[in-house]
Amino acid sequence: MLVANMKKVRDALILGALGVTAIVTAITASSVNAEEYAEKEELKFGFIKLTDMAPLAVAYEKGYFEDEGLYVTLEAQANWKVLLDRVIDGQLDGAHMLAGQPLGATIGFGTQAHIITAFSMDLNGNGITVSNDIWEQMKEYIPMDGGKPVHPIKADYLKPVIEKYKAAGKPFNMGMVFPVSTHNYELRYWLAAGGINPGYYAPEKGDTSGQVQADALLSVTPPPQMPATLEAGTIYGYCVGEPWNQQAVFKGIGVPVITDYEIWKNNPEKVFGVSKEWADKYPVTHKKVLKAMIRAAYWLDENNNANRPEAVKILSKPNYVGADYDVIANSMTGTFEYEKGDKRDVPDFNVFFRYNATYPYYSDAIWYLTQMRRWGQIAEEKSDNWYMETAKKVYRPDLYAEAAKELIAEGTMKADMFPDFATETGFKPEQTEFIDGVTYDGSKPNEYLNKFSIGLKGSDKI
Q1: Which residue range is the domain that position 174 belongs to?
Q2: What pTM was computed for the model?
Q3: Sequence-distant (≥ 6) Cβ neighbours of residue 330 within 8 angstroms
Q4: pLDDT per position as a tens digit, 178-188
Q5: If we measure between CA atoms, which residue out of 121, 126, 130 comes closest to residue 243?
């Protein structure tokens, strides 16, 4: 590089045309470009076969990674634990993760490791499905309009069904994908809002089942196995991401009763996670990855979802999600089918960029931490400051802003596509659109926990 710079200076002096300013500019530009080369160009990222891995697939297929000088391999993982372990031990450079995984790992619930995220992959995207038999039992209690169920369908209508099972001495089993998954917390939130206790974790007593004092017994089932497990009768319902709710409809084995959009409007879902050690070692590489994924997320929502049919075609490939085009399209293109034939418009079921979906808000991290505390994964009371400090360790809007500002400077994207980085605090305004009507203010986590009749709060311990 030094030789190249000297040649530029020599040529400029010989030609006498560039002038001193241009010479300095040429040398400086070369230096900047040298500093901005990715420290690591060949990367391997992991994902689980769900439609919300789309930003990774699109960044690869549309050439956004290559635009940044990155040569990426995307590899499906067997389950969330394997995925996390492989990021921690360095087999994967990063991965599509459950939003709770970087938080859980960093505070030591499960595997202890400092994982960070500077990119939120999507909003919404999950649903709760019950078996046909449970659905028929619930319908007795669900209000109807013109022969169709009135949505949102609350867990209040499931409660009498569960009470029948309890009276008969039969456990009511439900599936979710991982203990620190959004799906676990959304299913628990929905059940508790209907007066059903989903049970507590008691890690200090060695009980990590999450079933202490439970009315409904929740256990882990990998996403692609949910429909088969439901069909086998091992579980009576589940919470999972797409396409595995719509798959139950297509197979005629179950009925999605509610989407997470109706449980918590525009809730954060997956994140892109890397180890803190990796991010510190490869800062330019990390920034370039973020730039490519921001572009992919924007493409997914661009022109009112105009690119979604192409995205569905990409995701239906066997090396990505591998489900039928029609199954994936059922939700990815702005609709959602509940009971077979009852297809409704849900334009924001999958959101990848609008509403600042990609920005890693501290308030999102704190919500997940409150749910960990609510259900006993955090065994003891924590101060509001602890929640804030933990959120700042894991969620990195500063790194996101660096990548976004570079995209703006390059002219690839516009400033008005992002939060105002000069004034952004990392906290969303008070959020009111939860199914139980409880308001969430991320700056007051303990006050928020005190609002729930079911769940741990204050000095409560199991």
Answers
A1: 126-263
A2: 0.92
A3: 243, 246, 249, 250, 336, 337, 343
A4: 999 999 999 99
A5: 126
